[in-house]
Write a structure and sequence with these properties.
Blueprint lengths: L14 E3 L2 E3 L6 E5 L6 E6 L3 H18 L4 H17 L1 H12 L3 H21 L7 E2 L6 E9 L2 E5 L7 H13 L2 E5 L6 H13 L6 E3 L6 H10 L3 E7 L2 H11 L5 E5 L4 E5 L5 H13 L9 E7 L3 H12 L20 H16 L3 E4 L15 E4 L6 H4 L6 E7 L2 H9 L3 E2 L1 E5 L3 H10 L4 E4 L14 E2 L2 E2 L12 E9 L1
Parallel strand pairs: 7-8, 7-10, 8-9, 10-11, 12-13, 12-18, 13-16, 15-16, 18-19
Antiparallel strand pairs: 1-2, 3-4, 5-6, 6-22, 11-21, 14-15, 17-20
Catalytic activity: succinate semialdehyde + NAD(+) + H2O = succinate + NADH + 2 H(+); succinate semialdehyde + NADP(+) + H2O = succinate + NADPH + 2 H(+)
InterPro entries: Ald_DH/histidinol_DH (IPR016161), Ald_DH_C (IPR016163), Ald_DH_CS_GLU (IPR029510), Ald_DH_N (IPR016162), Aldehyde_DH_dom (IPR015590), Aldehyde_DH_Superfamily (IPR050740), Succ_semiAld_DH (IPR010102)
EC number: 1.2.1.16
């Protein structure tokens, strides 16, 4: 592992609590596996409930001082952190490649994307405003103050191990909060690396804490929910886990932000620019080997252009180069682990057994390794197949034909989740109608990549609630205090 890095100080394997690098009291470790070749690349501290309690206490003590810093001071810290991430972008990208399996170009893109959130909130911190309100009593003056909500707990996923932390922590720090972060057991190394960079920046002890675990993940998550010192929990992951965490948080009435599962529709209307729509699919569907919560999962193509569209898509997908993440020219890497591979394979088998046509791919690439799956295109898919009903989370494009706008809107919305959706059309009236009709928190019109630090990220229905990024993202880390003064 360390042979790949320019600065081996970024390679950390212990948790980070109260400004100290800590091991488990019983010295327990868990293995971090390179999904591209199955090698063990690190032995990381298996922390537990005791360490969460220690981190929450440290964050509480730090909060009492940190929240009194001026917003401009917090902005300076975030700006320095941003700059250090960019300066170390090559090493950070390689860490993401090795523990996640993303291609180098995708990993480097994630580093820059993550840094953009820290930069964004460095600029937002000084713009936390209160209001002066008119009252019905002429002898009173009323105003509001926005204050940090307190200690925040974060549980982040493996598919964007840097960006999901930065999107949450940037807003929290800008608001004046302190944090306890639980990174995914598959991808703790990049989280620990940026914790090390925060130490260099000069964040006070206890402001940023990292609790690493794999075997103890459930108990650590439960403690983050039930610990009364933690006032807010932000989670990115599956709907099933989100529901459990929400239930566990009920006893302490924590404020919650939940960014949960998706099943994004991607609609290509008959007047769409086909080349542009194909480009959007390639970005939206196959980025990260299809392991993103906002990637296109159900691709609805109008019957009049279906044959042309499917033929063009197959031509472009054939151009992908599948291989190990650090190999030059590779455009798609491995899936994260065997369970992910099994799910993708089961969805493809189910679709074919129910009448779908395997137009391309549909097989494990055993010569490359156990976690590689060929970029796949399925035709003749129906909404009753698993690849339509569930989030596949893999490099499988499932094509569904439709006839009318009303029909495709109904099919797109026939889903219990509502994170992202996409559609392509040249008709301005259609663009407004469909954007307002789709039951998702985010919509891409004639674009396949919607994520941006200025964009409010979040869903509706069983995709959760709360918004991350943008000017709205800081609101979940603030409380409003109302003050009335008699004169």
């Amino acid at each position: 592992m360390q042979k790949h890095l320019s600065d081996n100080k970024l390679f950390k394997t212990m948790g980070y609590i109260d400004g100290e690098w800590v091991d488990a009291s019983n010295s327990a470790k868990f293995d971090v596996i390179d999904p591209g070749n199955g090698d063990i690349i690190a032995h990381v501290s298996e922390l537990g409930v005791a360490e969460v309690k220690k981190a929450a206490l440290a964050a509480t003590k730090a909060l009492n001082i940190f929240k009194k810093n001026t917003p401009r001071k917090r902005a300076e810290l975030l700006r320095k952190w941003t700059n250090l991430m960019i300066e170390n972008s090559d090493d950070l990208a390689k860490l993401v490649c090795l523990e996640n399996g993303k291609t180098y170009s995708e990993a480097l893109g994630e580093v820059k994307y993550a840094a953009s959130y820290l930069e964004w909130y460095a600029e937002e911190a000084p713009r936390i405003y209160g209001d002066t309100l008119s009252t019905q009593n002429a002898n009173n003056r009323t105003y509001t103050i926005k204050e940090p909500i307190g200690v925040c707990g974060f549980i982040t996923p493996w598919n964007f191990p840097l960006a999901m932390i930065a999107r949450k922590v940037g807003a929290a720090i800008a608001a004046g909060c302190t944090v306890v972060i639980k990174p995914a057991g598959e991808t703790p190394l990049s989280a620990l690396a940026i914790a090390y960079l925060s130490e260099i920046v000069g964040f006070p002890k206890g402001v940023i804490n990292i609790v690493t675990s794999n075997v103890n993940t459930k108990s650590v998550g439960k403690e983050l929910c039930q610990n009364k010192l933690i006032r807010k929990l932000s989670f990115t992951g599956s709907t099933e886990t989100g529901k459990l965490l929400m239930e566990q948080c009920s006893g302490s009435l924590k404020k919650l932000s939940l960014e949960l599962g998706g099943n994004a529709p991607f609609i290509v209307f008959p007047d769409a620019d086909i080349d542009s729509a194909i480009e959007g699919i390639l970005v939206c569907k196959y980025r990260g080997a299809g392991q993103t919560c906002v990637c296109a999962n159900r691709i609805f193509v109008h019957e009049s252009i279906y044959e042309v569209f499917s033929t063009r898509l197959i031509e472009e997908v054939k151009k992908f180069k599948i291989g190990y993440s650090l190999e030059e020219g590779v455009t798609i890497g491995p899936l994260i682990h065997q369970n992910a591979l099994n799910k993708v394979q089961s969805h493809v088998r189910d679709a074919v057994s129910k009448g779908a046509q395997l137009l391309l791919g549909g097989k494990i690439l055993e010569k490359l390794g156990n976690n590689y799956y060929a970029p796949t295109v399925l035709g003749g898919v129906t909404i009753e197949m698993l690849c339509s009903m569930e989030e596949t989370f893999g490099p499988v494009a499932s094509l569904i034909q439709f006839k009318t706008e009303g029909e495709v809107i109904r099919m797109a919305n026939e889903c219990n989740v509502g994170l992202a959706s996409y559609f392509y059309t040249k008709d301005l009236s259609c663009a407004y109608r469909v954007a307002e009709s789709l039951e998702t928190g985010m919509v891409g019109v004639n674009v396949g990549a919607i994520s941006d630090c200025a964009f409010p990220f979040g869903g509706i229905k069983a995709s959760g609630f709360g918004r991350e990024g943008s000017k709205y993202g800081i609101d979940d880390y603030l409380t409003i205090k109302s003050v009335t003064v008699g004169i």
